[in-house]
Amino acid sequence: MTRTCAMTACAALLAASTAVAQETELEHTGTFPESFGLLQTVRPLPDGRVVVADPLGGVLAALDVARGTLDPIGREGGGPGEWRQPDAVYPLPGGSTLLVDLGNARLTVLDAAGAAVETHPMALSTGAGPVGLEIITPRGTDALGRVYFEARPRPGARGPDADSSRVKRWVPGTGSTETVAGLRPPAVRTTTSGGANDQRVSIRPIPLAPADDWAVAPDGRVAVVRAEPYRVEWIAPDGGVTRGPPVEHEPVPVGTAEKERWIDRLAEAGLSVGVTEENGVRTLQFRRGGGPRGPADLRQYEWPETLPAFRAGGAIVDGWGRVWVERYGPVNAPTVYDIFDRRGVRVRRVRLPAGQRVIGFGEDAIYAIRVDDLGLNWLELYRLPN
């Protein structure tokens, strides 16, 4: 009887903690004095600086946030120690950093001093033809230096997993990957034109469609944020799954402002990937953002009536091993994050000013981005709640 009562009490506590998660406003502690074209990640260094990569502004640098200074790393080019369109940075063991170098289609390992020590192509060969590649665009790393990325369905693919994305894990220097979790991918519209020898495939996203999201913790656990129902699952390195309870959310209507926000984000940070093959040699081209902002023909897209519960691509894990999920809301409303613990239970909600989003964490700091009216990115600092 005692055991049954204890289990019942635990279940009640779990439900209550999900329903009444505390909501607080984050404490702002500073703004870096220089703007950027686009920041998506930060990599804190042991000496207190942070490495940033700006693919639109062509900047790879270590920032001393306290002093407001910027120290460039490397230079633009295609040779050793050089980069073109530095896109993102992730931590590796020993103070090293993984640089996603889109312009050179490679992943570069930088040592603690910022020197390039090795490179890897951003694709693994899986067969013949331009589609016989597994493209690696990292979304995170763990404390062992393993790289995590999302593999999207290929046009024309068949089989039970043809319409699913997968979170995959890769050890740099090896030629194989392993699947960690399956995902519901963003919905797309695919059209094919041309003949057998000149076939063109166009893939266009369906805006604001529900899709699963994910993020990786330093210990190798992967948080999968399910779209329907809205909940968090933790996938352990050994494959064990911890599922949190569903979280209720009130749908928000999609208006003109929400549509324009989605189009602006696509222009700002959308990733284009091209693969060509000539005389048996494959070439990859990557390009991030740079599209026009401003008025667009909204009628060319299929729009849902309501926003999904969260923005796919916004999940991120903090230093306490909690996953932060960016909720979708009206354009002028504060940005709200749901914070889930290791059980998948929502334990807190936090607010940032409208339009800001979290891109990384330090030991006791949150790094967020504010986008101004000109589309420039400003790095904002907040105190990390414990």
Give a topology summary.
Blueprint: H1 2-19, E1 22-25, E2 28-36, E3 42-44, E4 50-54, E5 59-64, E6 69-72, E7 75-76, E8 82-83, E9 86-91, E10 97-101, E11 106-110, E12 116-121, E13 123-125, E14 133-135, E15 138-141, E16 147-151, E17 165-170, E18 177-183, E19 188-193, E20 200-205, E21 213-216, E22 222-226, E23 231-235, E24 241-243, H2 256-269, E25 271-278, E26 281-288, E27 316-317, E28 323-326, E29 335-340, E30 346-352, E31 357-361, E32 365-371, E33 377-383
Parallel strand pairs: 1-30, 7-8
Antiparallel strand pairs: 2-33, 3-4, 4-5, 5-6, 9-10, 10-11, 11-12, 13-14, 15-16, 16-17, 17-18, 19-20, 21-22, 22-23, 23-24, 25-26, 27-28, 28-29, 29-30, 31-32, 32-33
Structure report:
The chain has a 5-stranded mixed β-sheet. Strands 2-33-32-31 form a 4-stranded antiparallel β-sheet, with no helix packed on it. The protein has a domain at 1-36 and 213-253 and 306-386. The chain has helices spanning 2-19, 256-269; strands at 22-25, 28-36, 42-44, 50-54, 59-64, 69-72, 75-76, 82-83, 86-91, 97-101, 106-110, 116-121, 123-125, 133-135, 138-141, 147-151, 165-170, 177-183, 188-193, 200-205, 213-216, 222-226, 231-235, 241-243, 271-278, 281-288, 316-317, 323-326, 335-340, 346-352, 357-361, 365-371, 377-383. It is mostly beta strands and 386 residues long.
